[in-house]
Amino acid sequence: MQKNKAIAYLPGTNRAGNSLNILLIDAQPRSLPFTTFRTLTLPRVAGATPDKHHVQIIDGRVENIEIPAHGVDLAGITFSCNNAPLAYDIARKARDHGIMTIAGGTHTTAVPDEVLEHFDSVLIGEAEGGAWENVLRDAEKGLLEKRYTNATPPDLSSLSPPRLDLLRSMQYMTVYPVEATRGCPNRCSFCFNRYIHPTYRKRPVSHVVDDIELSDCNNIFFMDDNLTADKKHAKELFAALHPLKKRLYFQMELNAAEDEELVCLAAQAGCRGIFAGLESINSASLDSVSKSFNRIERYKEQIAVLDRHGIFVVGGLIFGLDGDNREVFNQTMEFLNNSGIFSVVVNLVIPYPGTEFHAQMQNEGRLLDLDYKSYTGYRLVVAPKGMSSEELKKGYENFTEEFYSVKNVMSRFRKQHRTLRQLPMYAAVNLAYRLPRQTKSRVLWG
Q1: According to a count of CB atoms within 10 Å of the terminal CB, is the N or C end of the chain lower?
Q2: Which CATH entry fits the domain spanning 3-148: 3.40.50.2300, 3.20.20.70, 3.40.50.300, 1.20.1250.20?
Q3: What is the distance between the alpha carbons of residues 160 and 49, in angstroms, rounded to a whole number?
Q4: In angstroms, what CA-CA distances link 97 with 77, 81, 255?
Q5: Is 385 helix (H, G, I), strand (E, B) or coil?
Q6: Fold of the domain built from segment(s) 174-445
Q7: What is the pLDDT of residues 137-171, one digit of tens each?
């Protein structure tokens, strides 16, 4: 029998045609309440589950993950690379209780053979489009194949509504999650997106509008990795959302700001802020990870265009790329303090298993730590080229301490000539990145 067709026979009677008690788990540790918002991954899986089955969701960010000894037939667990050890422990406890286990998510898609050492089965890629339905069909019979995947990416026009009603914690921020697209047309070597979402697809604009009309709050966050990659679709979407009078937040390429019509439509639709992966202010560093489409010389003007339309920019930065040297920290600080940017998320480079970047670092013998718990962006995992490991570690610590300091935050605020009305949001965004980072850094580095 072929490897991907091997069967995991599990305890229990054949329940073909009967209902299942399904426990869906997001294997993450507790998070600070003001950094936590609802996501769509497990609500989408629950939405794709026939009504005859009973589904419960546990989100480890906001509640304790407890596996009941009785009353659960199938546990579906999603997790990222750094949470793999936690997920493996949860799966062990579930299997000890005779519960069928299946893993999904980014890390499972990246290294399914490893994950199968801890789970009965794996779901590779996206759940909708037939894969999850096949899991449930087999689970009713008390057995699972080792691997499930879709032959083709699912059609986003046929998605069932997500079961957001199953996310009941009071700790979530008042932000409503929506998706209009999946995937990204870019091929950055450090990013895992193209593996779990192999093609860039768009949902019908009317379906997105329907979702937002059902929202229980005015703050809408698009879970898309690159909402404006198709500018025509994005413009149609923004025009359709204008009458709803919501506050929108999403991720996009910063160079999309070159299209001022798009920016204007986004602002009219209610966009208040965006996240953009700047990654570096060093062109050699961008080239090293296939992200040369970022135009560093245009960053400031692109940020200014968005700012003129009342849209703040939070940027993503990565230290430790191959073009970085010991001067990169001062250069980046000087640039940011004079760029007009609202804030940044600063990480050390993460070599996610399954990516081209991970393969390169492995081939070059530059992986310093194989413990997945370290793959958070807060800890040094890759040996740098342009400086010593100690210089990178210390430079990163000093940079984050200075950038998020009250003095620096207020200095940037005054320099950007923002109104006092913007100060609470400005302070909250920077605080949201400062406090969790300080806590995690202390845990990791002592």
Answers
A1: C
A2: 3.40.50.2300
A3: 9
A4: 15, 25, 52
A5: coil
A6: pyruvate-formate lyase- activating enzyme (3.80.30)
A7: 999 999 999 999 999 999 999 999 999 999 988 88
